[in-house]
User: What shape does this take?
Amino acid sequence: MSGETLVRVEDLRVHFPITSGVVFQRKVGAVYAVDGLTFDVLRGETLGLVGESGCGKSTTGRAILQLIRPTTGRVLYEGGDLANLKGNKLRQQRKRMQMIFQDPYASLNSRMTIGDIIGEPLLVHKMGSKAERKAKVRELLETVGINPNTLNRYPHEFSGGQRQRIGIARALAVEPNFIVCDEPISALDVSIRAQIINLLQQLQREFGLTYLFIAHDLSVVRHISDRVAVMYLGRVVELAENAVLYEQPMHPYTQALLSAVPIPDPEAEERRRPVVLTGDVPSPVEPPSGCHFHTRCPAAQDGLCDVEDPELKEVRPGHWAACHLITGGTYPHIRAGEDDLAVVAGGGEAA
Amino acid sequence: MGAVGNTLLRLTDLTVDFDSQEGTVHAVNRVSFEVAPGELVGLVGESGCGKSVTASAIIGLTGMVPNATISGRIEFMDKELLTLPENEVRAIRGRDIAMIFQDPVTSLNPVLSIERLMTEGLELHLGMSHSQAVTRSIELLGEVGIPKAANRIKDYPHQFSGGMRQRVMIAIALSCNPKLLLADEPTTALDVTIQAQILRLLKKLSREHEAAVIVITHDLGVVAGMCRNILVMYAGRIVESGPAKLLFAHPHHPYTVGLLKSVPRLNEPRRDTLQTISGLPPDLAHLPPGCSFAPRCYLATDDCWASGPELEPTDAGRLSACFHRDRLRVDSTTQEAAEVTM
Assistant: This one.
């Protein structure tokens, strides 16, 4: 990891219009899926992006690759803005960034052989002759741990874990620098997940890849990421080095989220007191005013949190958080109170 | 083994086969276990290991599948469910045994209101009048934490969020005071903060209603904090069972060891690589002779390939189906890390 920015996201917003009417569609509202994101992905790192379903983490991944066009905001890849690029120029850039999808069943065309699936990016980008492409496909299959002699088989002949390996081989085909991994293991069986995680880490070391690793499983994100960004309703609420975020989370949402993760160890479970947040995640159609988290936050202050948008600011070097109540190194400590409901246990000093 | 009279449910050699074009699929293979009244049991395994089929056999849904063959015994409150006539099973299903399904989005009928969904069981099983049933339903919805339940009872499932729908399903399952609740991946479709709420609710309600719960899951974390006893299934068989604390601390089966080692934990230092279980779960239509786990097992010897180990007592109420359980060490330094091979 060099500390040099590879991808920079600036005030990214993706709003999906809600329309009404059959012929003349009027815009009657919007889903504020991504609502003002700013962060950097550093060259060679794995940035984990975590959050609950509907918080906009997958939309973020897609908007970075311009699979969904951002409503406003910039996505800078090595300094060049992708959001302004179209057609051939965009396609040229796409060679350098790829995606691994969540569902290995839906993301491979069932009517193509796996050789054709992995070879297609090479064909699209006009890389190599037919023989060279075939050699490359065999090499890729070997890299991801699949017998190269199976390249004429179809996806249904492979298990979920093997299909995910095929999806990874396809992403690697054009030799990208940057890969968005969108929940790459959540559709897989427990005993297969570790195989895929290890493969992703091994490929990163081998090819110097940069990952944006989108997941909802906080234990897996801790294992694989160098830095972690936590999203809530379309915004990043906290971003820090892995160890810092997991050891000393400052944002009340991050604190509650981490306490809710069950640990496969009955002894540890006896000591763990999960903080129970009241209510559900609000709808991104009508996000709460001010801080999006204030409706569930035990520390929320009337007249401040429900009115003003908190800015994502650097609270300590390399540690970013978006909360009004984090000031000068102090932050609200969230604890499980009566009935395990979240309460504030007073402000704490950051070490 | 619990004493007679202190057993709510006893499965003896439950076997479920499905006929398919690929041959006979051995979904559940001679599964035996007992559940005491009010006990919380975790049934853990990966997809296709037979845990959901076991649950649907208990509640009498597997028998409705035309290509299924069931054998063995399912004794529930001194009745043998597999030989009971359908009308008597129907009286038990939904009343004494209830089920919570994995996906709250697809398992509530979208064209019925919450009122219809809730009152159906109360009127059918408990003979309540409709107005009594509505009053009771509102109480139950309040109990599972749905705010302003009286205003929401006329709503339809799509008007509720995933977590709220799962609460509705729990309320329906609990409505007739079941003795046994089968929770099939009750939190898999939910977010982690909502999962914490639902698990807490299940634990509390099971205590208050004195209902035994079988929690079926692939997530070891879910059962670690909730269940006193754990059953681990692999390829249609129980490979290990015992009290949660002992089982998690010192597994007596290499599959359990592999499962525990392959998931990263928040309370442990980060590791460079995760330990993996090599290979894939077996095809249930073509099970290997001998131990089903042998092809993936780092301890496997010729014995394992030749004949399958029986589930035998080890110590302190624990059972394990492994010839080499004495060679197991949880300490990862003495254990060879299985390489990724496919």
Observations:
- The domain at 5-18+30-96+176-349 of chain A is CATH 3.40.50.300 (Rossmann fold).
